[in-house]
């Protein structure tokens, strides 16, 4: 089955700087790649997703890039703010089976 | 209106007891899921139902039994609770199989003492 790995496990950034989290996946048939944000004690929330027919997608300060050849995708957060502090999960799916989640990245934005 | 609602939000119970968690979604989605999130925050899928039909059944002890009376509801019954069952259980739903656009409930924190 699909195996998704996230790096780094913890990322600390100064407020206003950019944060980048990278995920790798194993199944070349995967075609859907979402990112979820989970604040402490809250539910995972879908913040952005990308399909395999697109290389990049942006939504305000958040962007996701996909490299199908290398089988990795990344979350980019620009102009980080304290409310960006959370655990971020990447996931991958072939579209007809399950979402395979990475183990999560703790992002800490230092004011 | 809460899109995916779980009850209860917190559950504290003794070892050996049987308990149920309920989940309802009003998004009109066809597929529902149960995930377990342990203390290390890892999200592990347990079960998935598509239009009341079980489509994913991970390696979960048979003390866990899901039931989907209709496509808007997915309940989880746990028999003979053990200490290791302590975790946060999330219900989620998506328009179709594959988890695309999955929306999570607020979670049920289960503590077995």
Task: Please give a structural write-up.
Chain A has 111 residues and is mainly beta. Chain A has no helices and eleven strands. In chain A, strands 2, 4, 5, 9, 10 and 11 form a six-stranded mixed sheet that branches. A five-stranded antiparallel sheet of chain A has the order 1-3-8-7-6, with no helix packed on it. The termini of chain A are far apart. The mean pLDDT of chain A is 94. In chain B, strands 2, 4, 5, 6, 9, 10 and 11 form a seven-stranded mixed sheet that branches. In chain B, a hairpin with an 8-residue loop joins strand 9 and strand 10 (103-104). Chain B starts with a strand and ends with a strand. The mean pLDDT of chain B is 94. The interface between A and B is medium-sized, with 23 and 20 residues.
SSE inventory with pairings:
The complex is a heterodimer of chains A (111) and B (113).
Chain A: E1 4-7, E2 10-14, E3 19-25, E4 32-38, E5 45-51, E6 56-59, E7 62-67, E8 72-77, E9 86-92, E10 100-101, E11 105-110
Parallel strand pairs in A: 2-11
Antiparallel strand pairs in A: 1-3, 3-8, 4-5, 4-9, 6-7, 7-8, 9-10, 9-11
Chain B: E1 4-7, E2 10-13, E3 19-25, E4 31-37, E5 43-50, E6 53-57, E7 64-70, E8 73-78, E9 87-94, E10 103-104, E11 108-112
Parallel strand pairs in B: 2-11
Antiparallel strand pairs in B: 1-3, 3-8, 4-5, 4-9, 5-6, 7-8, 9-10, 9-11
């Amino acid at each position: 089955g699909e195996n998704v790995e996230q790096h780094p496990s913890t990322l600390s950034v100064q407020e206003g700087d950019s944060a980048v989290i990278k995920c790798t996946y194993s199944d070349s048939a995967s075609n859907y790649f979402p990112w979820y944000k989970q604040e402490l004690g809250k539910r995972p929330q879908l913040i952005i997703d990308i399909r395999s027919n697109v290389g990049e997608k942006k939504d305000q300060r958040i962007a996701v890039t996909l490299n199908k050849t290398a089988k990795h995708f990344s979350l980019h957060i620009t102009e980080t703010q304290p409310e960006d502090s959370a655990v971020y999960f990447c996931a991958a799916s072939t579209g007809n089976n399950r979402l395979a989640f990475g183990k999560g990245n703790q992002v800490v934005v230092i004011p | 209106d809460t899109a995916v609602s779980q009850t209860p939000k917190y559950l504290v119970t003794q070892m050996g007891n049987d308990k149920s968690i309920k989940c309802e979604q009003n998004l009109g989605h066809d597929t529902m899921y149960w995930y377990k999130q342990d203390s290390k925050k890892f999200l592990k899928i347990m079960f998935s139902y598509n239009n009341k039909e079980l489509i994913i059944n991970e390696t979960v002890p048979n003390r866990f039994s899901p039931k989907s009376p209709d496509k808007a509801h997915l309940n989880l019954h746990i028999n003979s609770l053990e200490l290791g069952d302590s975790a946060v259980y999330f219900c989620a739903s998506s328009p179709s199989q594959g988890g695309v656009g999955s929306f999570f409930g607020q979670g049920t924190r289960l503590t077995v003492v």
